[in-house]
Amino acid sequence: MDDRIARIQAKLAALPSTDEAVLDPVLSEQQISGFEDLHGIRLPEEFRQFVTLIGHGGYGPTYGVLSMDRWIPPRLGVHGKLAEPFPFAPDSYVSAWSGGEGGPTLPFPGTIAVVWGGCTQYTLLVVTGPGRGRLVEVIAGSDVVPHFHGDADFLAWYERWLDFTLAGHRDLTWFSHQMAGDEPELVDTLVNDAFETRRNAAAYTFITYPGPSASLLDVLAQALSTEPHPIVRKTILRALRAQGEQGRDLLPAALADQVPDVRCLAASLMTTNTRQGIRLSPRLRRTLADHLRVENDRSVRDTIQRLFDRSDR
Q1: Could you tell me which InterPro entries the record lists for this protein (predicted)?
Q2: The whole model's pTM is what?
Q3: Domain 3-154, what architecture?
């Protein structure tokens, strides 16, 4: 038995009672093999252990882990034949970022649904194909490119959910984009990892990371100045804003970014939300006003002007 089974059971028991961390009863080997025989597949071993030793539905991300009767959703276009390979490998997300023609052809073969995120959003477990055992986030019926969770398998994914919950991450909305690790590990990934997807996941994790060190602001600011990929730079901007006023004060550096979308986001993130609407501090208002005089891109100019029109003075 995988050592993580005992760890997950212990962490489930450590959750406060208010979390209602209840899982449906485990499945028998006969039930699992019956499903596999019906679809001509074998489920990934880590998932098999979870559903036969821990539980097969209930407490988990969003609306919880789906039970066996919902592994193949009734919504048209979400599932295909389980024995056919899911066409994307984990690293294919990187090539999709670089300007590929779009997402997959629906339905999504080679997967079962393990979490319903609302509407047509699902977390799928790849059971056939190069990403076998990995979790992938999809929005059926859209051109949004699927993206793989950073976790190596289902047990790692579920244990990360428990770790984030127990550690007190400020918001679990970003869970599918984030990754496991303490602050030094995440910083090392953000600064040194060769894959854009992993650097982006590290940056996303800092959006909700509980109890960041005093040096994190400098690390994020340095990473922003050296990061080659605009999508990762945009996520770093969100991580900076999440650090509060000191983080927002570092956002003007991105007004010099070569990509207009990055400059637009930097300007938008300088605001704070109040009951009366959005607010710009006097210093950041002056910074944006000065930048508006030299900004040549119309989309950035329009963004800044809208902020001025909508914010109080």
Answers
A1: ARM-like, ARM-type_fold, Knr4/Smi1-like_sf
A2: 0.89
A3: 3-Layer(aba) Sandwich (3.40)
